[in-house]
Amino acid sequence: EAKRHRDGDPQRFHQAQEDELEERLTLEGELRRAIYNHELCLHLQPQVDEQRRVIGAEALVRWSHPERGNISPGRFIPLAEETGLILPLGLWVLKEGCRILGEWCQDPGYHHLKLSLNVSVRQFQQPNFVDQVLASIEQYAAPAERLTLELTESLFLNDPEGTVQKMTELRKKGIRFALDDFGTGYSSLAYLKALPLDTLKIDIAFVRDLTLNMQATPIAGTIIALAESLGLAVIAEGVETEDQREVLAHLGCSTYQGFLFGRPVPVESFLPEVLTDTSATSTQQSTSNPPA
Ligand code: C2E
Ligand code: MG
Ligand code: MG
Ligand code: MG
């Protein structure tokens, strides 16, 4: 009785709010520091074709905090969006992504790989976004046609015309666009048709409950059919089981991403995995050309 009374105490409620605010302010300061002190890094998760060949990767930002350990993007990306820190963070991701692509380009083992980067709405809506992308590509001599930018449906909510214009400009340079988490947002079919997209990413929510003994037509199937009718490619996200892969393949999906094929890993660990197919040739090469 007394406890219940205390819990309802407005002063206590106020204290909890203050604690939360303080925690956020601390985290905000630390994130600001992290962006400029290189505590962030990109991990890469493979994207594979029907034959499970790695055709590219999605870059996912990671924050390893010196005292708190790894902080998940689910916690700090929303904070970054609210505070505006997503702008320097997003620019860092863009540059680091282009640096990686530029490096792959130098190596015949990797130069076929595509890289996808997540772009926040706020970042995309900056007036100089197009310039930032083009400058980053140029700085690292990254092949534009192997760069995909992942956008989310919330872009539809305001300034659809500006969105189309920016996408069109970047697409002329060869950059591609994927719509992330498709099916969870607000997109209308009219906008979907108007946007110069290349790929729809089926959200994990529609992959999670796919099973082999499915009776009803799963939503994933509807999305795949929709993509086909719009002339778009499809990637299924969050594929964890062989059953899910099989159902998706049956529904006509041809590109996959998920723990079944590989978790996000540091850039250095990603590359050797890609090369496993050609390891015989690279071994031979390293024998005939011993390191200096
Ligand atoms: P997203 O872009 O939809 O990324 C996919 C998320 O699903 C990643 O979570 C990935 O680790 C996770 N995932 C991949 N395969 C599986 C699977 O088989 N099962 C399960 N359960 N999960 C899987 P992560 O890395 O925690 O990122 C969460 C979100 O944070 C991303 O969702 C994206 O919206 C955002 N994010 C990550 N990196 C960046 C970035 O560089 N910039 C921006 N703006 N947002 C980012
Ligand atoms: Mg994504
Ligand atoms: Mg996604
Ligand atoms: Mg997501």
Automatic annotation (TrEMBL):
Which part of the chain is the EAL domain?
Answer: 24-278
**Superkingdom, natural source:** Bacteria
User: Which parts of the chain are coiled coil?
Assistant: none
What is the name attached to this protein's record? EAL domain-containing protein
Organism of origin is: Vreelandella rituensis
Q: Which residues of the full protein are shown?
A: 510 to 801 of 811
